[in-house]
Amino acid sequence: MVSEFQFVAVLVAIVFGLSMTHVLSSTARAMFATSEYSYGLTRMAWTGFVLLVLLLNWWVTFSWREIEVWSFDLFLVLIIWAGSHYALVITLYPFNGLGTDIQIKDWQPRPMLLTFIALALLDYAQTAVRGELFSSPYYIPFTLHYIVLAGIAAYLHKQRFYTIAAWYFLISFFSWALIVRRFLA
Prior knowledge:
- The chain has helices spanning about 5-30, 40-60, 70-90, 110-130, 140-155, 160-185.
- By secondary structure, it is mainly α.
- The longest helix has 28 residues, at about 5-30.
- The chain is globular, with a radius of gyration of 17 Å.
């Protein structure tokens, strides 16, 4: 017999799996594109950051297994939160109206940054619903600093700041995911 969490986890896994598939296949296409459509280090850093966000949050989804009684509102929060990850990936590697990728040279980080802000706010919601919003004194300020930086980058709309932000997000999130969380948890 399937538990309620297992039933919900299947849909969440599909959403995260589609997200991973899209970012990995789009990255491969971008890397093999002609030199006319240079991939760029900034886009590579954003891609690395988004992949880490996907992997870490897919892992965090496992903590929902402790919920014994599920309701539609819990399910809805989790699915919207998972869906925001897919939206982030689509803004990193968007489609045109015909379902094909937008040319690499035409991509702008602003929609991705605004989508990331929405994802971070939804992350607060799913963490609160799970009852762990205040369980770590580091979670809210750490996530909030990403929201502020993403907002500044989107507002400034400067390529140089996009590049600095991309590498900062990637390096700091990688450090957070693999080092800091282990020792502060």
